[in-house]
Model the fold of this input.
Amino acid sequence: MKIKNIFSTRLKGLRNQHNLTILELASRIKVSIRLIKYYEDCKSKCLPTASRLVDLSLFFNCSVDYLLGLTDNIKTNN
Done:
């Protein structure tokens, strides 16, 4: 599976686990609804910026490596 597909799946999964709508997530991390939909629908040809990945990992309390599918360990090593 490609990294962008893994990212899309994990982002949507985390959002659903936290019982958030796309609107709520977008509002909390201060991005557009369209951007969240873009990521979740896996239509982007590129991944989020490094700073956006960090924002998402901090919000969901998970590692960037987990978001990108480089590990299955959801928690950070902090």
